Fold this sequence. Notes:
alpha/beta
Amino acid sequence: MTSNAILPRAAARPARLVAMPSMPAATPPASLASPFDSLPDELIEAIGERVLNERPWSSECDRASLHALSFVNRRFWRILEPLRWRYLEIPARGRFDRLKHSLADKHGHVKRINLELSASPATGVGILIDCLRQCDFLSHFDLLAPAWLGLSSSSSMLLQDIVEAIEHSSRQLQVLKLGYEGRRDRFPKPALTAILQQSASLRIFELDTSIGYDSDISTRIKIERELCEALVHVSSLRLAKLRLTGVPALATDCIPHWPNLTHLNLIIDDLQGGDHLFRLLECVSGSLRNLSLQFDLRSVHRFPEVDPADPVQLHKLDTLRLRTDAAEASFRQLIHISTPVATICLDNPSSYGTREIVRFVNSQPSKTVSRIVILQPPIFIDIVADWPKRDTRIALLKEQAVQLDVTTVEMDRTEYEEEVERRAWEE
Length: 427
């Protein structure tokens, strides 16, 4: 995934649960047992829960420490077994036959699955599908599919089968994250639509479909409209991260039916006119607390000419993230100065964006902006080459912030996105 992708990937992956370690030593006799061994089963399980440090909105947890605790003796191994199997990371080239054998009597413990497919078709994928179908109580599913899945109809059918395999968990699914690179006309629309139509508990939904090899804009828009129609049913949704070709279907079909939506992250490949984005913001003006915008430089020129009364007032908006120069340059056309935004977050501050922020803050009838967050980018060669210019822009921004009596903070991007998901879950 790129640094602009909706789906954040942690740098450190949790330990994998495909090959289980060998059984620990037997429980020592009472004469040699420590006071810890006398604890009741329920308390040991509670300690295991605390050690696991599970975050319901995220894939991250401390499974390594839980495994260490499990190795105290066989009693601990037995008591903590359900927790060890709760989160399952399936490697791209894993031994699916061994996984299927292990799941025979443990599939009921699995609540979360993180599946990242390899850059070439894995062997034994039929067994993988069987494994997914065994997991009846999924609450969290995270899938990252590479570009090769979009190059042929047979490989795209695999993605369809994978998504279809978790359909039976639709009603209890709370977090669904899908990252897909390839042709959108081969995206698993029927299976995903079926899941969304049955979802009753979905709180966080991420869909990142890169343009990839498909240049047919009309096809992409048609598929996205059908997906948006399916999203109408997900009234429980609190956070939506979506990469779309445009926003017409999203503005007219979905947002009015998301009364609990508090966090919206949009990456728009082709804005197709600013009126749809204005309509979208009007629909969420009463509930949205966190808004992230990314669109290309060409899109900014498609905004209609607006007078100061036309921008949308988002009555509960607390945090505004501007991910591109175009978003920085145009946010004053979108967001009314009376919006009580407290934090403005920037991925790559620009000199023009700094001027727009200064104008926005100075125009507020009652100043609410108190903090500007500057996100640290991942270390890529192309970004490193631009760091001197970036440092100059950041220095200018900090200088202007001091004059505005606004605090500036630099934050790790992954840390920030984790915090956004936590707030969306808890609010």
